[in-house]
Every structure is written in structure tokens, then in C-alpha cells.
Amino acid sequence: MSPEELTKLVKEKARFEGADLVGIASVSRYAGAPEPVRPQSHLPEAKAVIVMAVHHLDATVDFGAEPNSNYPGGFQIGMIPKLDTMAVRVGRYLEDLGYPTIPIMCTTYWHHRHQDGVPFDHHASFSHINALVAAGLGEYGWHGMSMSYKYGPRQRIVSVITSAPLVADPMYTGEPLCDRCKLCEKACWGENYKPEKLLGTKTISFEIEGKKLEYAHINRWRCFWGEQCHLDMTHLAERDEMDEQGIYDAMDSGVVRVLRGNAGYMCSSFKYCMAKPLRTWDRSRTKSPRRIKPAPTAQWDEIKTKLKEYAIKAGADSVAVFPMEKFQENKALFEKEFRTDDFYKAFKWVVAFGARKPKYLGQPGAMVAKNVNMATHITGRLQPGIYDFGRYLDDGGYEAFTPWYLVQFEKKAAALAGWENKVVASLTTDAPMEECVFEVDRPLDGLKSAAEVIDLKQGLLPQVDVCGVASLASLGDKAAAELRELVPEAKSLIVLGQGMSKRVVALAGRNTTDCLVSYIQANMQALRETTWGALDMASALRKLGYAAEGAIEVDSLSKGRPMNHIGKMADLQAQAPFAAAAGLGFVAKNGFLTSKDYGQRLRFSFVLTSAELPGSKRVEGSCPEGCRLCVDACPSGALSCTDCGQYARNDDRCEWARVLGMTEGGGSTTTGWRVPPLPVPDKLDDEARKAALAQKDPIQVRCYQNPNQADTQIERCMQVCPFNK
Description:
With about 725 residues, this protein is an alpha+beta fold.
């Protein structure tokens, strides 16, 4: 296949997965970049960077950052899981074609402090903003954010670094997108653009293939104040000097965090920016500039067809549309400074997607507690789906807005629709609609037998690589009894697996940039994809008359680790015996499931069902004679080689590294954060955990308020396993 043909296919795949913008940058465009942030530092054999973006809904910007930047409103809801899903799926597509690929997740934790080889603070391990410019999709604005020719600054970006020989797009040469209108300066709550508050040379400038790029040299500790710390923006301008200690001084002096639920920042400079060729004004709607959009033409029949399509992709089983008049009581839940009356005038309809929660949620029991994050996984699919529908409306000239959960549009929509026990995502719009409530089929609904439902050869669950079955009777009485806490009628356990990228696992924490971002993303997305598959499979089995529920954890003693966006990453070693019982591989001495095709790189989710399915054949296997690579690689000395059988594992020592991230070389140290030099304990209790976490880096403890996914530790015992080769 020629590079031109391959490039065309990759771009088609990116657009199929939902990219509004897609461009290709050659690695040669990074020749002048600091070495730690070059593509080759993540993937030594890199030849190109695929850059994809999805755009912010215009109305979420119009109504965001009001009354100030601490209040993002519906800004960027659904965008992060959308982008991470796109990146991993495009990466898998290229890996299947034989090209090692490293997706870089949409957002993670920055190197806020100085890193050797990088001449500035506050940098990501790989800059998506820079990648968009290098891929010919736009330019930098005066504020240091990237601007595209189609949406101005209103997009979020994700990148995929690949060894594929793709053809680079030309650098952008159109009409300048930033005309230095300085609206960003005037809007900044911290007055960060004042000459006395800028750093060093006052501007940052560089070239890519002869194209000069320049923007204000802002002191990013001032941005850190609001974006990462969520400190009260009304107190930033009064502080002329700012550095890391200045953040702590502000906290100690009583400056409070302003955090609405799980969101807390939208840059006002961003709100007041729009690329010159796209800029228009409608001050009856908003004081900030707007984006020129096409005149709307789509009517209800066409919109309803699209609504169904997006609902199915989102894993919804129900859809509802109601007029805004039925949500009048929700006005009391908006911030009193928010333009609530204008909001209700701007939108005529509320659209809701609903998806059934597992029946066990809300019930007592240890196994239920282990699976409480299932609702988060459902939300992580619904929100990107309804956001996708909003993008369709937005690009068609209408307005769409994703309300934040504290205004409870989802709760009200569920009550109006008569939905019980559903996770709901909502959207408001001015598009022409009609009041309705209806159901939609999930991808596997309508299949004729349980055997068809678990048959991956049909291609209906393309992100699931393997599937196996174990009878509950084969798991032993204790395990079977615990699992029946989730589904009392259960007779079979179905295990769905996705294989992580071999290159991502091999390079995690071992590449030039010493970065774990891609490993975090691959773990998280594999669990998402298999869980979404499990939910679809359970739905289809219920349609056939069986009891069936999806699950994430199947061991009551498992210790999952914190993972933003999904709650927790499942305990792989605790799950391994169940996956082995379903024929997906054998359990190696380090406790990980090991398969012929994927080594120890499988991540899995589960379905419990009353269907009596034939069990899969168990896989026989063993570790190489005398191999103890996993024992030697463990940073906390959790494994011990006492005999020729299974290696003994001290679960508390393992938790110290894997869950708490208290050892060097874990996720937190790869973002430049410090780990306290504490001895590894043989025994942990809640007080010891709390005390250890309190001694971690103050950026984590005080600003990000750990624990979180930055502590993700590559399981060195798994990484060095020869089966991964």
C-alpha cells in the first residue's frame, strides 16, 4: 500500500470515529523541539503524528465562564472520553496493519516544574496544541492556544504517534487566524498579559518549516491558579508575583477553591477569542464573539433519524425529547449570577439519552461495592454520544448545550419519561423537535440465541478481541456465591477481553520521555471498551429472556487503583483466575493472565447470566523454567520466589506501588512529582494509607488532591514477562 493510500485510509478511519478535524505532521517538523517532547521520545521509530480534534459546542462557550472562569457550566462535557476513544481506536487500526503506534491521551498531568531538556515550566509530555499547528490545521493565537481554520480556538485535540509512513499535510497558509485583537488580554481575570506579569522575553517564538509562530510568554503558574487548583479567580489579579510557593501562600491565606461538582474552570481568554475569518457578534446572545455558522436547514424528520443513530452509538436504550417549559423548576439550581433567563430563552428543547443501570446497583454487598463504578462507565459512553449529536446540530447551524449535572436536567428528564434505574445524559437545543419518548436497540439486541450473542466473529463488538465462558459451578462455591450477589440466577460467567498495544506496554516508563500517559490511556480505554461490550451483551441476553448483568470486578478482595474518568482500574491479578477459567489463558507465576496471542496484555470485563452456556476449554501453560524476571523487577519487593510454584505476593507491598504509587518510576514521578522516601511496609491499614498519601508531592496533595490516575504504576512484573514479546 502506498503512503498516499494509507494516509487516505487513516483519515477516513479518524472521521468514522468522529473527528471534526484530522491532519498529519511529519516528525521532521519537531526537529527544533526540546527532545523530551518530540514524537520520537514516545516512539523511537515514529514517522508521523496523526492529529484529531472535536469542537466545543458554541453555546457552551457562550454561556461558559460566567460569572467568572471558576464556573465552566456545560463546557467540554463528553469531549475527553470521546477523544481518548478515538485515539485508541485509530491506534488499534494501525497496529492491525503492522505499524507500532502510541496514542497520547487527551489530557493528563503536566510537568509543572522544570524538566531537564525543556526550557520552560508547565509542559505536557506531548503537546496536542503544537501538534495541531504542526499538522497544518491552524496557528497559535496570542494567548498560546491553538486556533483552527474551522473552529478558531474551540476544539480539543488528541494525537497518535505512529511508525506508519503517512503523508504530511502542508502547513496552514491561509488568512491569519489571530489578528492580535487582544480580546483575550482584556478578558483575563488574572490580568496575566500585563507586561510586568509576562515572563522573560515577553513572547515565545519559533519556526516550523519556515512558518514563524509567536505568542505571549504568560506565567503559567497564574493559569495553574484556576485551571488545576480551582482557586477563586477574583483574587488572582491582585497578586503581581506568582510561582509554586505563591499558590500555597494563597491557600494558606484563605483563598478558597471554587469547584462546582467535578468541574471548575473555563479560561475567559478562550471564551473571548474567535479567529478573525470566523468572528461575528450577536450581543443580544452573548458579550463574547461568536463563530460564523451555516444557516440551519434540517427539519424534525431528518433530525429524529440522526437522533436514533447517535443514541445507538452511545449505548442508550431510550430517548426522550421534552420542551424547556417542563424544566422551569430547575432554574433554582443555576448559579445566581448565571444568565439563566437568557439560557431558557435560547433553548426550546431538552433531549435525553437513557441507559439501564445494572439491577444490582444500590443493593448491599461486597461485590456490589466493587462494581459501583459501572454507572460511571455508562456515563462515559452516553455523554460522548449525546455530545456527538450536539456537534451534528451545531455544525448544521443550530445551537446545542450539554447541561452540567448539578442543574439536574437528567433527573427531571428521567422523571418525565418514567425512567427508573437509568443513567441519563442530556442536551438542550433550539433545533425543531417534537415531544416524544421511545426505545432503541443496542448493537446485539435482536440476535436469535445466546450462542450468537457471544460470537465475536459477527463483528458487532469490534473493540472486543476475545470472549470465553466459565460455568459458575467451575469457579468453586465461595466465588459462585459472591457472584450470585450480582445476579442471583447466574449460571455462566462470560469474560470479554481487549489486548493492549504491545509497544505501549513495552515502552511505558522506558522511553526517552519516561512517560506513562499512553499506558494510563490504554488501560483505561481497554476497560471501557470491554465494559461497554459487556453491557451490550447483557442487554441482548435479557432480550432473549435470560437474567444478565455486566460487571467490572468479580473478586470481593480485589484492590483497584484510582483512575480518573472511570473511577477505578480493575485489579488484574484478582481477575486473572476467572479469565483463566473462561479459557482466555493461564495464570503465570506473577499472578497475571497470560495468553498465546496477547501475553499479559489482556484487559477484561464480565457478564453474569442465567443462560447455561458451554464452558470454554481451559488453556494449559507455564512460565519458563527458572525465570524470575518478574520477581526482580518488582519495585516494592512484593513477589517472593520461595518454591517452584506460584510466586508468593505480599498484597500490601503490591498495593504500595500499584495502587498508592509510592515508589520511584511510577506515574507521579514521570510527571515530575516527588515521592516521599518512605520504607515499603509489610502491612497496610487505612491510617497508614492516609498518612503516606499526605506526604506526597504538594502539587498532588494540595492542588490536584490525590489519589488519582497520575499515580498509575506500570506493573513492572507484567512488563518484563517474556510472554509479552
